[in-house]
Amino acid sequence: AQTVTQSQPEMSVQEAETVTLSCTYDTSESDYYLFWYKQPPSRQMILVIRQEAYKQQNATENRFSVNFQKAAKSFSLKISDSQLGDAAMYFCAYRSSMEYGNKLVFGAGTILRVKS
Amino acid sequence: DTGVSQNPRHKITKRGQNVTFRCDPISEHNRLYWYRQTLGQGPEFLTYFQNEAQLEKSRLLSDRFSAERPKGSFSTLEIQRTEQGDSAMYLCASSPIWGGPYGYTFGSGTRLTVV
């Protein structure tokens, strides 16, 4: 079974600075998808960024980018020019491309605090 | 379409009571998922439907839990004889059947507190 590990329970960043959230995963599969989700307090979880494992190029979405290291099974999220609205719980998630159901395996999450 | 809707947002119940939650997915999404999220943890998969068929259930889904999706539209999750350990956020999500690299659309969740 696949597992996802987020080793940083909590991170802090100064507004306008850059922060990196770590994620490692364990799988025997070669083709899969990785996601970062943001869950603001009392609000719904939204997709921040996704990465297909077969793509070598790291995904980028505006101020959000990932560092995908397939051999190391590492998938970190970099947030540049941090804003107060970035404060939330961030979850790393894995999805197999082999399983039919598309279910996600989540890490335990990292709370990101943004200081003004 | 206003996204995935879950009701109620909060539910407080006494131990031993039955509770039912409802999820209305995005109308064109064939797949509907239920996850449970306990405090300080990531969501854990409970079950999913493709149209009206329940195709997979996690071992987390004890026999006190039952989920339905009649006619492949909304879904309900019922917990019978609630226990304090059932206290959690119950998340619903939906996705198109073809999946691909796309994530889900999540609802805002139902927070259950069993006292």
Provide a descriptive summary of the structure in words:
The complex is a heterodimer of chains A (116) and B (115). Chain A has 116 residues and is mainly β. Chain A is 0% helix and 53% strand. Chain A contains no helices and 12 strands. In chain A, the strands form 3 sheets. In chain A, strands 2, 5, 6, 10, 11 and 12 form a 6-stranded mixed sheet that branches. A 4-stranded antiparallel sheet of chain A has the order 3-9-8-7, with no helix packed on it. A two-stranded antiparallel ribbon of chain A has the order 1-4. In chain A, a hairpin with a 6-residue loop joins strand 5 and strand 6. Chain A starts with a strand and ends with a strand. The model of chain B has no long low-confidence stretch (mean pLDDT 92). In chain B, the strands form 2 sheets. In chain B, strands 2, 4, 5, 6, 9, 10 and 11 form a 7-stranded mixed sheet that branches. Chain B is globular. Helices cover 0% and strands 49% of the residues of chain B. With 115 residues, chain B is mainly β. Classes of the chains: A mainly beta (116), B mainly beta (115). At the A-B interface, strand 5, strand 6, strand 10 and strand 11 of A face strand 4 and strand 5 of B.
Question: What is the secondary structure topology, with strand pairs?
Answer:
The complex is a heterodimer of chains A (116) and B (115).
Chain A: E1 3-5, E2 10-14, E3 19-21, E4 24-26, E5 32-39, E6 46-52, E7 60-61, E8 64-69, E9 74-79, E10 88-96, E11 104-106, E12 110-115
Parallel strand pairs in A: 2-12
Antiparallel strand pairs in A: 1-4, 3-9, 5-6, 5-10, 7-8, 8-9, 10-11, 10-12
Chain B: E1 5-7, E2 10-13, E3 19-24, E4 31-37, E5 44-50, E6 53-57, E7 65-68, E8 75-79, E9 88-95, E10 105-106, E11 110-114
Parallel strand pairs in B: 2-11
Antiparallel strand pairs in B: 1-3, 3-8, 4-5, 4-9, 5-6, 7-8, 9-10, 9-11
